[in-house]
Amino acid sequence: MVWGIMIFCLTAGAFAQSLAWLNSIDISEDGNSGGNIAFHDGNLYVSTFNDRKVLKITNGNYTTPTVALFADLSAKVTWPTGRGLQGIAVDSATGDVYVSGDYGAGRLVVKYNSSGAELASLIDSTGGHRNAGCVLWGSTPSLLLCQTGSGLFNVKSDLSGYEATAYLSGANSHARDVCVVGNNIYVSRTSIALPNVDGIDEFTGGAAGDLTGYAAAAWFAGTAASSQAVSGIYAWNYASATYLCWANQTTGARSLDIFNQSTKALYQSLGATENVTDARDSCVGTFGASSYLFVTNGAQNNIQVFGIDGATLETSVSDWPMY
Q: Helices (H) and strands (E) in the chain — how many of each?
């Protein structure tokens, strides 16, 4: 199907980045309900919520990318209905992949090498804590997890246990994903019912890698409560600014909303007009000199691809005409 190219710009000060819709990557044959997404070394890693799998996508900047199963966690624990994988992170130094999820009775984190071999796991039902999204942070680094109830956990990167300051209480309940900008922590949340609403919380006052000293406050409040389990947040560094890309799951939106992290200004909302109808998470990937924004479109089982600043798709060999 040919949609054509849609071009729009995000502006901030003296520079502007343009985004152009390029492609839709179908993942329906390999996974059900794509959620969180991460990029490393030319590969995309996508967690699926309903069937608890991790997919690996190569050549995401091509007209015909390759989608393959990377890991299957469906039998790792007993998953009740409505529970699944909610976080994915990649160690930029080693290529190791971390996957986190909520299986109802507790938290699950599994670590894989870049080939998909399991290296370690942490399964913890203490106190009924259940984790959602994750991100690597600090110079060591350690794994920062947001928990479904509220708050943050700091886990050792080898998954052997928790760091000295292991837990920090949160500002609001139902945390879904987490990202870090400098020393500041940002958490995406969804709410079960009004008067609480979906939004973003900010944790400040500490130093990356250690939860000591942090305090939480609301950073952005949406207009409704969605109760959705997967609502990603991603920090996109562009030129001299950082943007928070938030999967807004509130009714009528289901968009990817892009905020300037410094000013809190909303610069762009990618919605149905841009083929995003159920945004769950996003990431930016760079191939050579070209960069792309990838947005998981949960219920549609696809990933929407946007070229940044004129980036176009490469042509796959399989797409060459026969002579």
A: 0, 25
